[in-house]
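Blinded run. Sample ID left blank on purpose so nobody reads anything into the name before looking at the predicted structure. Input follows.
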Amino acid sequence: MYAVIETGGKQYKVSEGDVIEVEKLGAEVGDKIELPVLLTVDGEKIAAGSDVTVKATAEVLGQGKDKKIVVFKYKAKKNVRNKQGHRQPFTRLKIVSLG
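Blinded prediction complete.
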C-alpha cells in the first residue's frame, strides 16, 4: 500500500517506513505529526478525494539544510554581476503509519 501526501505545497508518494525530506516544518525532533492524504492505492483498490479515510502519521527525525546552490545573475555589457548563495532548510520525516 502506498499513499500520496501533501506538505509544503508539494506532493510525495510514500509507504510505511519511508524517510522523506520535506519543506521545513515547525516541529521538534521526535514529534509525531499527521499529514493530509490525497490518494491511497492498495493493490487494485484506489481511493482519492473524499473517498480517502486514511491518515498518514510521521515522526520528525531531524532538521537540516540542503547543499548550497549558487544564484548568479549577469547582464552583458553592463558590468552587472550578482552572486548569491542559498541553502534550503528541510525536515526529515519517517512515515510511521498509513491508516
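Unblinding after everyone has recorded impressions. The chain has a mean pLDDT of 94.
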